[in-house]
Amino acid sequence: MARTVRRALAGTALLLAGSPPVVTGSPPALAGAPPALAGSRPAAAAGPGGGAAAGVRPAAAPALGFRLAAAAGTGCPRRSAVRLTSYAPGTLLLRLPAAAVRAGARSGGTATARRDCRAQVAVTVPAGYRWRLDSIAAKGRAWLPAGATARAFVFTTEVGDVEGTVQVADLSGPYRRAWVGLFPPEKSDSSQCGAAAENLLVGLSTDVTVADPRRDDALLTLPASAADDFAVALGLTAHPCA
User: Fold this and answer.
1) d(Cα 77, Cα 152) in Å, to the nearest integer?
2) Is residue 227 part of a domain?
3) Least C-beta-crowded within 10 Å: which of 33, 57, 71, 85?
4) Is residue 53 part of a domain?
């Protein structure tokens, strides 16, 4: 799973540029992503015969560092409610066990229920580099009766800047299965050159609505318990300051 996530998120900026968002009923893992995303890398420079230049190896991407600095919201009422795992060179996985949202008869007759979580992640970069956000992934499961809807949004920005919003789920009942999506960010987020670390704000907002709150029951979850699993995943890359 960890290898699949790294391959699916690393270096996807070229493939994702201009691509429409995708939300499917695939199993809750990026193993179900389109084959073009798995292990994709920019093409190597061509040699005289049209193939890769002999003896030329692409330079390894500098690794970024990640640390959870703060978290708050109804979907993460305390910092410990956000679990963070990262893989070199720049894959960040977030697990949010408290982010499930339920509406209807089993939630006291609530017609619409919402959850939100905002986490600040300190991103460290090697000297002479800055980080850039290239891709956003999210996945979960939903149990929606006819007439019910569920939505999920991911917000990203450098702390203090304008947020970019990506709708990662837009579901309508009847719906009883998993969903997963891989998206480009709404706007280009990157750190300032010369800063050893700059916080990246990552937010998740979910809502569920039912047609008849006295009879219906609807649930949206983001299950992820293993360290190499995720509810929200981000792909970042390091770029030279020029």
Assistant:
1) 18
2) yes
3) 57
4) no
